[in-house]
Design goal:
The structure is a homodimer of 126-residue chains.
Chain A lengths: L1 E12 L4 H12 L3 E3 L8 E4 L7 E6 L5 E8 L2 H10 L3 E6 L2 E5 L5 E5 L11 E3 L1
Parallel strand pairs in A: 1-4, 5-8
Antiparallel strand pairs in A: 1-5, 1-9, 2-3, 3-4, 6-7, 7-8
């Protein structure tokens, strides 16, 4: 038995400077910048969200602008296998998550380590 | 004074048949299909979400797969003007919403009619 849920919506921005993008989305969505540089490498910024909400992240990327979603789980292997059985494909393992591709063409990430305890709106899978 | 908040994340799918896409995302995210054909034209399907969550919608589109977000507001003109002042551009008015483009290149919609009362996580703007 394992759990998973949507953990984040990530606004991927093809920009040289993530700060300007972060400021726009912070103001547009009325969310404070909780962390302008999450990993200290200028690639991730976090907007403020409630404990019952998915994270809202900005990511500096090389590819065209898009939004992707992250799924968090307490059992990465089981969750990736579950999603593969539904038709998703593994693309690449990065740090502590799998990048996968849905049959609809959307890329998404399955993240091993929950940022906080899996709480609201989690699913439990047999 | 007006209000706005994130109202939906929309999974845009370039598919002939939205049902298959809806079934995948329903299973992947562990969300029941709340409405397989919201407008009766085979273009919108809704996954089940809690009252404190943004809607999760599937949309059948002609462009490449992406995810976009919707902002809902009780004053469309004021909200669009607020977002323009931040650097977003109006692209097109459709039915009851404006399609806008962020300075980061992301397209998003600003929706006039809240699907339900604006509640959790709303911002109030002067």
């Amino acid at each position: 038995m394992h759990k998973s849920r949507i953990s984040a919506f990530v606004i991927d921005c093809k920009v040289d400077d993530l700060d300007t993008a972060t400021k726009f989305w912070s103001r547009a969505l009325g969310r404070a910048v909780a962390n302008p540089d999450q990993d200290g490498d200028g690639r991730y910024a976090e907007l403020a969200t409630g404990a019952d909400e998915p994270f809202l992240l900005l990511q500096k990327v090389e590819h065209d602008a898009r939004i992707h979603l992250d799924i968090e789980t307490d059992d990465l292997d089981a969750e990736v296998a579950r999603l593969e059985a539904l038709g998703a494909k593994r693309l690449q393992f990065v740090k502590r998550w799998w990048v996968m591709q849905a049959p609809t063409g959307h890329r998404f990430c399955v993240v091993r380590k929950p940022h906080r305890e899996i709480g609201s709106h989690a699913n439990t899978w047999d």
